[in-house]
Amino acid sequence: MSVLFETSLGDLVIDLEVEQCPKTCENFLKLCKVYYYNLNAFFNVSKDFLAQAGDPTATGTGGESIWSYVASQEEKDAAAARYFAPEIVPKLKHTHKGTVSMAVAPSVNDEKGGCGSQFFITLADNIDYLDGKHAVFGHVVEGLETLDKLNDVFTDQDGRPFKDVRIRHVIILDDPFPDPSNLIQPPSSPTRPPDNSTRIAEDEDPLATLPDEEEERIRREKAAAASALTLEMVGDLPFANVRPPENVLFVCKLNPVTRDEDLELIFSRFGTIMSCQVIRDKKTGDSLQYAFIEFDKRDDAEQAYFKMQNVLVDDRRIWVDFSQSVARLNTSWSNNPKVGLHSKERGGFGGREDLEKTRRYRAAGRSDGRARDGYGMVFEVPDDRGTSRRSKRDRNMENPRDRRRRSASPRNRSRERRRSRDRHSRDHRSRR
Questions:
Q1: Three-class secondary structure of residue 249 per DSSP
Q2: What share of the chain is helix, strand, coil (3-state, %, to 5)?
Q3: Residues 6 or more apart from 160 whose CB is under 8 A from it?
Q4: What is the structure's pLDDT at 20?
Q5: Surface-to-core class of residue 7, CB atoms within 10 Å of its CB (0-12 exposed, 13-18 middle, 19+ buried)
Q6: Maximum CA extent, the chain
Q7: 174 vs 15: CA distance, rounded Å
Q8: Is 329 helix (H, G, I), strand (E, B) or coil?
Q9: Top enzyme class of this protein (predicted)?
Q10: Contact 236/320 with Cβ under 8 angstroms?
Q11: Which domain holds residue 303?
Q12: Is 252 found in the same domain as 238?
């Protein structure tokens, strides 16, 4: 009756003494069947002495028998002893290297000691010190070279290997014992170690080296990821792993007089354009001489990229490339008047509505065709009472008919009657 341990250092085949230690062997085999030992670490390795495992917490204080484990898995509050009495057979001794024994826990407070799930494998011959204290129940018959590797691992002052040595998988080669009626085998082996180890992983090589080019690439990727995370935290990126769109072109070296509609007209022959935007200074409204053009399809953007490179537009030879910017995903940086901050949108001219109003006022011009040289009171300015007052210039330029209509309104008639009444009262008091 035997089991196969697949460890990170090699395989171990253990023959069990089922006739002389039936209870101990049944406990060991059933724990193997429920994957209790899978991904367990050898948490205590003493050179030329022993290697201990079987504690899921890897602290030396955990572990339990199969009967206690089964009781803990049931829905009802079933109680079972954590340990069972050790089967110490006098003729089974720690004579040869590879002897497998159950560790016997001492009695602590009211809890009676005994055997649970922890076991150890001797790494040398003739360790008589352990005879009669721990229960021998098996021997390693294949994999002695694996024990040699285990004996040579580097450990800390507590005997824990700096690099984890784990039991990757357990295969039961022969099991003569029937399963307990309430034992439920998990559908699959665990994929994560049961302990929270901070040691070097058992599949990690700390001395492995990469070519200089590969190390530089990894370093750049890590630096880029850190920078992207920083930009996300300060709000410049919507999320750190954002990628630039593949259907947006970046056009630069533009003439300052080139407008959005000019570029859209020129590039529209390659396909449907979703948006075309010349980037402008937020304060002055001047063109920064580059733009972003978003196509409906990626193929259209690729065709425009190959056809429009170094083309003459408004006496300037433009440069076209695929956009590497994700700033357009953040509408707060848009200078498109259709995208606004107030209410539903953010916008204005470079994100400022006051500049947009100024631009519209300049573009409107005067009725005689000449550009406006003065601003005056273009917009109504609320006074202290919350009403709008108009400039004297605007009132003087008003149509006389509108002025009479405004004075004939009920509100103005009431105001005139009030003023007339106050004037008569002052005249009456002065005559007295």
A1: strand
A2: 30, 20, 50
A3: 43, 44, 45, 58, 199
A4: 93
A5: buried
A6: 141
A7: 10
A8: helix
A9: isomerase
A10: no
A11: 248-329
A12: no
- The answer on pLDDT for 107 being more than 70 is yes
CA separation, residue 15 to residues 9, 26, 130, 146, 185 (Å): 19, 13, 20, 16, 23
Provide the CB-side half-sphere exposure for 281 (13 A, CA): 8
Q: Cα dihedral sign for 44, 45, 48, 50?
A: positive
**More confident of the two residues 335 and 190:** 190
pLDDT digits (tens, 9 = 90+) for 373-429: 443 333 344 444 444 444 444 455 455 555 555 555 555 666 666 676 666 666 655
Structure tokens at 129: 């010190």
- β-partners of residue 52 are 44, 120
- Domain stops at, among 265, 294, 329: 329
Domain boundary among 146, 172, 198: 172
Short-list 34, 108, 98, CA closest to 66: 34
Classified as helix, coil or strand, 82 is coil
φ, ψ for residue 365, nearest 5 deg? 70, -175
Overall average pLDDT of the 255-261 stretch? 92
Are the C-beta atoms of 112 and 61 separated by less than 8 Å?
Answer: no
> Are residues 270 and 143 part of one domain?
no
The pLDDT of residue 323 is 84
pTM more than 0.90: no
261 falls within a domain: yes
| Residue 19 one-letter amino acid | E
Q: Classify the C-alpha dihedral 212-214-217-221 as positive or negative.
A: negative
**Does residue 227 share a domain with residue 135?**
no
Residues 235 and 252 in one domain: no
CA distances (Å), 125 to each of 49, 95, 144, 154, 419, in order? 9, 6, 12, 21, 122
- Mean pLDDT across 89-117: 88
pLDDT score recorded for residue 336: 53
Number of domains the chain is built from = 3
**DSSP for residue 108:** B
40 close to 55: Cβ distance less than 8 angstroms: yes
Residue 359 covered by a domain: no
> Which of these, 42, 41, 55, 44, lies nearest to 157 by C-alpha position?
44
User: What angle do the packed helices 66-73 and 22-33 form, to 10 degrees?
Assistant: 40
Highest mean pLDDT among 71-80, 203-212, 248-257, 346-355: 248-257
Residues in the chain, total: 432
Q: Average pLDDT of 83-111?
A: 89
Name the amino acid, one letter, at 201: A
Query: Does residue 315 contact residue 255 with C-beta atoms inside 8 Å?
Result: yes
Closest by Cα among 199, 158, 174, 175 to 8: 199
